[in-house]
Amino acid sequence: MDNINQKDYYEYVKKKMPKPNYVKNCIWAFVVGGLISVIGQIISNYFEKLGLDKKATSAATAIVLVFLGAFLTGLGVYDKLGKRAGAGSIVPITGFANAIVSPAMEFKREGFVLGVASKMFVIAGPVLVYGYGSSILVGIIYLLLKR
Amino acid sequence: MAQKRLGKQTIVFQNPPSIIATATIVGPKEGDGPLKDYFDLILDDDLWGESSWEKTEAKLQQEAVKLALTNAKKVTTDVDYLFAGDLLNQIISSSYAARELKIPFFGLYGACSTKTESLSLGAMAIDGGFADIVVCVTSSHFSTAERQYRFPLEHGNQRPLTAQWTVTGAGASVLSSSGNGPYITHVTTGRIIDPGIVNANNMGPAMAPAAADTIIRHFKDTGFKPEDYDLIITGDLATVGKEIAQELMAKEGYDISNIFMDCGIEIFDAERQDTHAGGSGCGCSAVVFAGYLYKALKAGKYKRIMLVSTGALLSPTIVQQGESIPGIAHAVTISTEK
Amino acid sequence: MEFLKAFIVGGIICVIGQIIMDTTKLTPAHVLVLFVTTGVLLTAIGIYEPIVNFAGAGATVPLPGFGYALGKGVIEAVQKDGIIGAFTGGITATAGGVAAAIFFGYIMALIFDPKTKQ
User: Fold this and answer.
1) pLDDT of residue B47
2) Is the alpha carbon torsion for B310, B57, B91, A101 positive or negative?
3) E strands present in chain B
4) What is the dihedral of CA B286, B289, B295, B299, to 10 degrees?
5) Of C116 and A94, which is predicted with more confidence?
6) Residue B90 gets which letter from DSSP?
7) Does B158 contact A95 at a Cβ distance shorter than 8 Å?
8) Chains touching C by CB (3 or more pairs below 8 Å)
9) Which of A37, A88, B41, B161 has a Cα at 20 to 30 A from A13?
């Protein structure tokens, strides 16, 4: 087995690998992602009715959705949802909460400073780095173009 | 001149050690699988009263060794060497179990190949006249492996169909220079074979060439043929890897399809238990061997088997650096006759 | 009607994520980075705002919506505060969601223990 051609082997393996059920996965992602968005809309409408302005409404909605994602993660339910829903539970902002809460819970046994607080961003960190980073770039470019 | 060598990678024992007793302790999922009647102890939950899964895994090893020694009518002070390993960083499950057992300790890391690695070295220590009683134990735990290698348990990620389920369990074997078998008669030590797989969810295909390489090398070194064996069983190639290994061997002229099984496939009912490609982990071949295969050998169901634990020697760090996953497989021949 | 629009657009964005995860080697982390950055860029060039006006939460709940809040926040802040705004705009606009995640994450870690998968 010393002379395996890695490229050929990879093609051979690819043919043998079971393929995911694309249709089923997409339907689940669509339905769950859509439902979470509808829940977000209901929450948003409620805050608007309370008289909050647009900015406050969107912040309040985000906070409530994050709480829901965090709570369902704490209950141990969000991972069961994610198994079926895939991107339907990862892409909405509730998935962002799940990505922060799940390692926070996981590493509790290693303490609250080096465990919980430090590992909280192990999955969601890239979202913040690239999100904030790209917004700063956009801001700088916008400034330069405005001149 | 080394006198007990056969060919390039195999040794044959002059005084084959006996496996005089074994013990297995498994988690609830394994205890709900097809082999549940063969395990000594099935846990109700995955913590077993401990405050963390890592401590639970150390307890699994420790108690499996104690149970195996009880089955062998021996005590820890009778044991000359403890060969142990697991999947965790710095093999802490083995070290912390050994701390309690106080047996002279060799810690091993072979990933999921550690069971046969430990049996190989234990048998060599006995046949070489360096020991009379040796214990070989390996363990794995689903939760400790997920934390270290993959995602936090509450994270809503989807496991692909090629992913394998790490077995929660420890399997211990007591080897002796005197006994009535089953005997370890031959050991073929594997070399690392890297076929270039980079996806850590694809471990079966990463290890299959190593398994094929070691098994073929065993046949070439010993002159045995597939007909000389009742069973050849790999550690955790799972469904995709097993098929690949079988085809790789067939290409070299070795047809083992009638006698080929895989511990990762046997330990779970993939459909009912939703374990995708099959079980994996050091504990997989350890509990399947120490539970099911050992009892089958003693009952006369098999006369001669080849146990080939297979390991994927990756770390998350090096895979993130772009490296591929190297595999290794160690084979031991276990026979009811010397 | 607005619920239907939210459902469909939110669903479609998730399906795109699912297709990427199923057909490429990209992991969920890569997909999230891709989506948030795309949200920022599409907002900057003015494409995402109409989608938000059309679908409401269907565009703001999925992660590109986080990028939308970032993008909108930074452009408004730059208009008001110049270069300082480039740094403060995004983070201020999304402060609520991120602070909530940190705070509730800590609390959930306090109260709950992780359970193994079945």
Assistant:
1) 95
2) positive
3) 5-6, 10-12, 18-26, 41-42, 81-85, 105-108, 133-140, 165-166, 169-176, 183-188, 231-234, 260-262, 279-280, 304-312, 327-335
4) -160
5) A94
6) G
7) no
8) A, B
9) A88
| Confidence tier at B185 by pLDDT (50, 70, 90) | very high
Nearest to B268 by CA among B44, B36, B41, B34: B34
ipTM above 0.90, yes or no: yes
Q: What is the pLDDT of residue B149?
A: 87
Residue C59's pLDDT is 95
CA distance B108 to B67: 21
Q: Domain ranges in chain C?
A: 2-111
Task: Count CB-CB contacts under 10 A for residue A50.
Answer: 10
Q: Residue C22's closest chain B neighbor by CA?
A: B160
Q: Locate the chain C residue with the closest alpha carbon to B51.
A: C113
* A44 reaches C (C-beta below 8 A): yes
| In chain A, domain spans | 20-146
Residue contacts between B and C (CB atoms, under 8 Å) = 18
Number of residues written out for chain C: 118
CB distance A91–C98 less than 8 Å? no
Residue in chain A closest to B144 (alpha carbons) equals: A106
Residue ranges and CATH numbers for the domains of chain B are 5-176 (3.40.47.40), 183-335 (3.40.47.40)
How sure is the predictor about A115, in pLDDT bands with cuts at 50, 70 and 90? very high
Query: C23 and chain B: CB distance < 8 Å anywhere?
Result: no
Structure tokens at A117: 């607080």
Report the mean per-residue pLDDT for chain A: 93
Of A18, A85, A102, the CB nearest to B154: A102
Contact criterion met (CB below 8 Å) for B171 and B64: yes
- Residue B3 phi/psi, 5-degree rounding, is -95, -15
